[in-house]
TrEMBL record:
GO terms assigned for molecular function: UDP-glucuronate 4-epimerase activity
Protein name listed in UniProt: UDP-glucuronate 4-epimerase
Regions annotated as coiled coil: none
Species annotation: Thermotomaculum hydrothermale
Protein's UniProt keywords contain NAD: yes
Entry EC number(s): 5.1.3.6
Keywords: Isomerase, NAD
Transmembrane segments: none
Pfam families: GDP_Man_Dehyd
InterPro entries, sorted: NAD(P)-bd_dom, NAD(P)-bd_dom_sf
Length: 323
C-alpha cells in the first residue's frame, strides 16, 4: 500500500498522515502550503512527519492537473485520502472561486488520475455544514441539496463527483462528514483557537450570536482514527459522519477555556452570521457499524489538552500572524 494524503500539512491531514506512518504505512504527502493562515503553523506540523523514513513530501497544488498527473506517474499510489481543502464558511463568501477550484475541481483531478492508475480506495473529507436546516441528529441519508455557503456547495460538488466516479468506474469510495474538529495545533481561524489566544492575551472575544448555539465538537485524534479506519475499510460507496454525538454550547466551551487558562474574559457580541449553522449534532450509528468507530475524547478532556499545548507553545503561537 502506498497512501496519498493531500493537505498533509493541514490540521486533520497531518494527524492522519502521522497515524498511517506510525502504523508502518508508506505515505506520499502533498500540500500547497498556502497562506490562508500563517504557513509557519503548517511547517510546524510538517516537520514531525518528515522525521519518518516512510514519508515523502511534495509541495503541490491539487488544482493543477499536470502536477497531479505527474505525481501519479512517479508513484504507484493505491489509496487516496483527500484532506486538501479550502476551509472556512465566512471566507468562502469573500472568495468563492478558490473554494470551487480546490474543493471540487481538485477532487476531480485526483479522481481522474486515480481512476487511470486503478487505485483501490478514495476517501474524501466533507463537512457537517451540508446539513444546514435539517432535523437533528443529522443522519447521512438526509437530503443536503441546499448548501448555505460556497464552502458547503463546493463540498457538495466534490461528493457528487465522487459518486459519479464510483458509479462509472467502480472506485471504492468513503466520504467522511466531519463535525467541528478541534485540538492542539489546530487552525487559527477556528473559534476555539482564537478564544484561547484572545483570552490569554487579555483581549475580548468576538462572538457571533449569543453563545447558546451548539456544536458537536470532535477531537482531532478521534477524527484521525476514523479517517484511518475508513481508508482501510472497503465500503463500495458510503457517506459516514464522524462526530462526537454530544453537542455542547459555545458558552460552555468558553467556560472550559477560561478554567484552563485561569482567566476571565469579556465578550464582544456580534449578530449571528447567516452562513453559520445554529446547531450541529452527528448521528454516528453508521460509523459504529461500518468502521467500528466512535469518539472517545470528551470536550472537557479535549479542551484541557488543547489549552495545555497552547501554554507549552505560547511563544510559538504568539509569533504567528492571527488574522
Amino acid at each position: 500500500m502506498k497512501i496519498l494524503v493531500t493537505g498533509c500539512a493541514g490540521f486533520i491531514g497531518s494527524q492522519t498522515a502521522k497515524l498511517f506512518l506510525e502504523n508502518g504505512y508508506e505515505v506520499i504527502g502533498v500540500d500547497n502550503l498556502n497562506d490562508y493562515y500563517d504557513p509557519k503553523l503548517k511547517e510546524y506540523r510538517l516537520k514531525f512527519l518528515k522525521e519518518h523514513n516512510n514519508f515523502t513530501f511534495y509541495k503541490l497544488d491539487i488544482e493543477k492537473t499536470e502536477d497531479v498527473n505527474s505525481l501519479f506517474e512517479n508513484h504507484k499510489i493505491t489509496h487516496i485520502v483527500n484532506l486538501a481543502a479550502r476551509a472556512g464558511v465566512r471566507y468562502s463568501i469573500e472568495n468563492p472561486y478558490v473554494y470551487s477550484l480546490t474543493n471540487t475541481y481538485g477532487t476531480l483531478n485526483l479522481l481522474e488520475a486515480g481512476k487511470k492508475k486503478g487505485i483501490e480506495k478514495f476517501v474524501l473529507a466533507s463537512t457537517s455544514s451540508l446539513y444546514a436546516g435539517q432535523k437533528m441528529p443529522f443522519k447521512e441519508d438526509l437530503p443536503v441539496n441546499e448548501p448555505i455557503s460556497p464552502y458547503a456547495a463546493s463540498k457538495k460538488g466534490a461528493e457528487a463527483m465522487c459518486y459519479s466516479y464510483h458509479h462509472l468506474y467502480g472506485v471504492d469510495t468513503t466520504i467522511l462528514r466531519y463535525f467541528t474538529v478541534y485540538g492542539p495545533a489546530g487552525r487559527p481561524d477556528m473559534a476555539y483557537f482564537r478564544f484561547i489566544y484572545w483570552i490569554d492575551n487579555n483581549m475580548p472575544i468576538t462572538l457571533f450570536g449569543d453563545g447558546t448555539q451548539s456544536r458537536d465538537f470532535t477531537f482531532i485524534t478521534d477524527i484521525a482514527r476514523g479517517t484511518f479506519k475508513a481508508t482501510l475499510t472497503k465500503t463500495g460507496y458510503e457517506i459516514i459522519n464522524l462526530g462526537n454525538d454530544n453537542p455542547k454550547k459555545l458558552n460552555y466551551m468558553i467556560e472550559l477555556i477560561e478554567k484552563g487558562l485561569n482567566k476571565k474574559t469579556k465578550i464582544d457580541y456580534k449578530p449571528f452570521h447567516k452562513a453559520d449553522m445554529k446547531d450541529t449534532w452527528a448521528n454516528v450509528e453508521k460509523a459504529k457499524e461500518i468502521l467500528n468507530w466512535q469518539a472517545k475524547v470528551s470536550l472537557e478532556e479535549g479542551i484541557e489538552k488543547t489549552v495545555k499545548w497552547y501554554i507549552e507553545n505560547r511563544d510559538f503561537v504568539n509569533s504567528l500572524e492571527i488574522k
